[in-house]
Amino acid sequence: MSSRHSNSRRPSPNPAAISSGAVSKSTSTPAWHVPSANIDRALAAVAGNPLAQQYLTALLEAQSDNAQLKAENVTLIRENAELRLQTTRNRRGKGRGKVSNLTPDEQLAVDISRIAKYAQLFYGPYFPNGTFGSPKPSFAYNDVDRYLPENLLLASAADIYHAIPNTPSYHDAIQNSDKFKERFLKGVGDGISNALDRFRRMGGQVFGIPGNIFTTTHYPRATVPEIRQLLGITQATNTSGKVYDIYPEFPPVLFPTDRPGDMRHVFLNPLLFKVARMILYGDTYLFWTPGGKQHLTFRSNGTYAHNDGRNIEATDGFIASIAMLTCFILSPDSEFGSKGNGNISGVDWFAQPPVAVNLIYQLAQGKSQQQVLTCATSIMVIAQCHFPAASGKQLSLKNSRKKVARPA
């Protein structure tokens, strides 16, 4: 099999042909392009100097080779992503003792559902309609440009592009397929439901109060003193004299018990770490302790594993999602409305993760290096989590948000 990176040298470009514009960017393979005016000036400068002309020819050849290799590297990256994706699928099939007989379209539908379940936990539960159908944004999902007002929809698109495998088939599906949107949104809903169902089953053990408070669908949780304290619920009276509950945006449950309301330590309540372990690893890991007999193992075919075998990285959205799920479980609500509003509290639950993510960003811009958090790096404390890579090596769960320069 011939190597894509051959050792044979390409023909040297002809300076005369270059100066006349005969050599330009190939229509089949992106190569290189130097403005002819620049070439003319360079050739004129070395006229009558054979050594300089030879150097210029070699330089142009090197530029051509370099650009060609860059183009080939992009192709290889895509091919490698496709291969890793197929290898992961095969490994999952063998693990279940089955060989997949799905067509490519059917397999894509299954993959989209898995990706959506991952995305709702690591980026947020709400993806606006305008998120779909757009090309890949010019900025990364964790770039500061996502916070610009004009990039609100593109920010969600950047999240999806980071969640999906970097392959042409997925990029084409997100841009041109209504079915992708339909399957993705259904997968998001299924992922939220699965996480909440697990949380309800374990709610009593998480918070140390009777479990039926969470498993009973319409239990009046807002009347439980412990829950009112965790959520910081207060009361007010409207103009008609009716008393109603007020839910703070950052309730006490999000802070360590000895630092209530201290925004430098928001999201650092150890209880949130337990919730994150339970959702990622399963019910039995709720009371995991470092150095104990129980080892944290993350299955490569688990709900939140990447389809293409990439390692899991913590995101600001993951911190925000865990916080939102914790507050929702404590609330009197039994379901979200179509836009994320609680059916009893009226709280806009879908609006909370973006606010929390933006807060993490703002704290990272703060004057104190201490404020670069704990909040953004707290995810690393979640039980000192380790995720096995496809190769079987143990890789530390790390925060993947890009560092940004603080304003002067």
Number of H- or I-type helical stretches: 13
Shape: elongated
Unreliable residue stretches? 1-34, 367-408
Computed structural class? mainly alpha
**Estimated share of beta-strand residues:** under 5%
Number of domains: 2
Q: What's the N-to-C terminus distance?
A: 56 Å
Helix content: 40-55%
Radius of gyration: 27 Å
What is the count of β-strands? Answer: 4
List the helices and strands in order. Answer: HHHHHHHHHEEHHHHEE
List the strand order in the largest sheet: 1-2
Largest sheet: 2 strands, antiparallel
Structural notes for this entry:
This protein is mainly α and 408 residues long. The chain folds into 2 domains: 15-95, no CATH class; 189-396, no CATH class. Helix content is 46%, strand content 3%. The chain is built from 13 helices and 4 strands. Helix 4 packs across helix 7. The radius of gyration is 27 Å and the shape is elongated. Residues 1-34 and 367-408 have low confidence and may be disordered.
Question: Tags for this entry?
Answer:
408 residues; single chain; disordered C terminus; two-stranded antiparallel ribbon; 2 domains; disordered N terminus; mainly alpha
Gist of the model:
The protein has 408 residues and is mostly helical. It has 13 helices and 4 strands.
Topology:
Layout: H1 15-19, H2 36-45, H3 50-95, H4 104-122, H5 152-163, H6 168-176, H7 178-207, H8 212-215, H9 225-231, E1 234-237, E2 243-246, H10 270-281, H11 316-330, H12 352-364, H13 374-377, E3 386-388, E4 394-396
